[in-house]
Amino acid sequence: MTKKPLGRSPGSLNAPIAAFTMAVVLCSYCIYSINSARRGAHTQESDSASVQRRLKQKDRQDDWVQRALEERGRDGNGGV
After folding, report:
1. What are the pLDDT digits (tens) for 23-65?
2. Is residue 3 part of a domain?
3. Is the pLDDT of residue 78 over 70?
4. Three-state SS across 10-79?
5. Cα–chain-centroid distance for residue 48?
6. What integer pLDDT is reported at residue 23 of this predicted model?
7. How far is CA 52 from CA 38, 43, 44, 61, in A?
8. Domain co-membership, 54 together with 72
9. Has residue 7 been placed in a domain?
10. Comparing 64 with 5, which gets the higher pLDDT?
11. Would you state the pLDDT for residue 71?
């Protein structure tokens, strides 16, 4: 008489082992993804100097557009 592992046939253990392995891999991926997103949010938040630079650059661009529109209006070339 052949001895069966845990009283089952050898093939009947494959599905539960595969399901457990997939669950572990999925949980690991979720935890890694959440931590990675948190790290990304903190680095963006703490990089206030670059944020200030981008805001100043955007203001300069907006000023340029505003001046160009005002000059076009003064010249009487309001239409395109």
Report:
1. 999 999 999 999 999 888 776 656 666 777 777 877 777 777 7
2. no
3. no
4. HHHHHHHHHHHHHHHHHHHHHHHHHHHHHHHHHHHHHCHHHHHHHHHHHHHHHHHHHHHHHHHHHHCCCC
5. 19
6. 97
7. 22, 15, 12, 14
8. yes
9. no
10. 64
11. 86
Tokens representing residue 44 in the block: 């963006």
Q: Is 77 found in the same domain as 56?
A: yes
The token pair that represents 32 in the structure block: 């890694």
Residues in the chain: 80
Residue owning tokens 């935890």: 31
Asked if residue 78 lies in contact with residue 72, where contact means CB atoms within 8 angstroms, the answer is: yes
Q: Please report the pLDDT score of residue 20 as a whole number.
A: 97
Report how many domains make up the chain. 2
| One-letter amino acid for residue 28 of the chain | S
Q: What's the domain range around 27?
A: 14-46
What is the C-alpha to C-alpha distance for residues 77 and 35, in angstroms, rounded to an integer?
A: 55
- 76 — phi, psi (to 5°)? 85, 10
